Prior knowledge:
Distance between the termini: 28 Å
Oligomer: single chain
Number of helices: 11
Shape: globular
Amino acid sequence: MVFCHLLRKDENELLPARSGCTIEDHVIAGNVEEFRKDFISRIWLTYREEFPQIEGSALTTDCGWGCTLRTGQMLLAQGLILHFLGRAWTWPDALNIENSDSESWTSNTVKKFTASFEASLSGERELKTPTISLKEKMERYSDDREMQNEIYHRKIISWFGDSPLALFGLHQLIDYGKKSGKKAGDWYGPAVVAHILRKAVEEARHPDLKGITIYVAQDCTVYSSDVIDKQCTSMASDNTNDKAVIILVPVRLGGERTNADYLDFVKGILSLEYCVGIIGGKPKQSYYFAGFQDDSLIYMDPHYCQSFVDVSIKDFPLETFHCPSPKKMSFRKMDPSCTIGFYCRNVQDFKRASEEITKMLKISSKEKYPLFTFVNGHSRDYDFTSTTTNEEDLFSEDEKKRIKRFSTEEFVLL
């Protein structure tokens, strides 16, 4: 999942739509169209305004505080794209999307943020809930692969809609965040968002999502038996396949500042086919890192306040869910607190991924301890409390302690 060797070098500049780039091992350097299609096809989730009021608050926008939730959504969306559509899929209309001027867009964002935030503090909005059902369409177009892919494309986006019933929408994520002491308007860190995403996927009641789960590393440790248990349990009786898993690893790449020694490791991680990106950013801003160019990271930026889109209507517009141009940032500006994501389609895939990642960890650690580790066995074998929880207590006491510790270490996001 690597984007590298882009042509433009200017620091922190919006990369133009015509920059050359290599994508994956088999793409020739400079294949501009392939890079553009691959990047634009990723689901882009940004600040929104004028959406249904968040329960327990007067807020109808997340401008100014929801950026880490948005970058977490983008990472999960990429995992779902891999799960349902595969790595080779690209949006057929990707190259038709218009590029936007970053400067005017940013200026407009500030104005819209001020107005929408003030408006959200007064009055209530009528709630709209998604009612779309795609089952009949799937059956009708089952022999048309492209139409089937487009139906899933829209379905995945609809799961992230800004309405109370959207499975992975802002409203639901905030509701799960309450179990860790967070509320609408608070700032969320990468580690907290990792646990919120896990709960959202575990609690999702949708037949298409029975085959995927999320595992969050404990204290920078991935316990292989715990992962495999999650992949092999709660499967339907008529389905003997193991689950896919998205592994989320909250880490710190240094103390107060990111240690430059970790650059090669981060580039290596982003180059792995299993990697679905990094929830990170720089101080006061969260970004979704999707690749790299030389010593800079390529990212998708959630800090654009766009208007609410009702994803429950037929053929809702897709353009605002796809980013027309990538941006880049020097690695040295990256905040050390981040969460790395990996997608594994089945148990065998997880075993291969753990071997490859472990090799990379050993090479990058040199004389230091690795950033995180894969160990055999269950967490309980190492005297850790199991993370299995019931519905009445979505976060165990052990999880709450870890989340609280990570929260105090993470940056504040605006």
